[in-house]
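Deliverable D5.2: sample structural annotation.
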Amino acid sequence: MNWAISFYSERVHQGIPSWPDDVYADFLRLAGLLREHGIDLRMPHSRAMGGGLFELRCRGQEGAGRALYCMQTGRTIVILHGFIKKSHETPDDELRLARKRLKEVQHER
């Protein structure tokens, strides 16, 4: 049984398609793997960031994108935040925003 993917907000949903075409295409490919494998998707495609937060690692010739997500009961994945990486490390402010949204989503249960 496949997992469902939802988005934290319409803004997050609309932001990811604005990524460079090849990075967005990789997001779509990885989202398909995420639907199929859910919590079993691992490196190099997905990485646990701790506390129930995960990172979908999208790549392309034009750069790298990250979609930060969490799992919910009922086999649902929520994309909390997406951004194009400008440095090697995931920026603290991007992680902070995703962790804030993660807490909001967890409290909705």
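Annotation notes: The chain has a mean pLDDT of 94. Residues 4-107 form a domain with the YaeB-like fold fold (CATH 3.30.2310.20).
The annotation will be released with the project's public dataset once the embargo ends.
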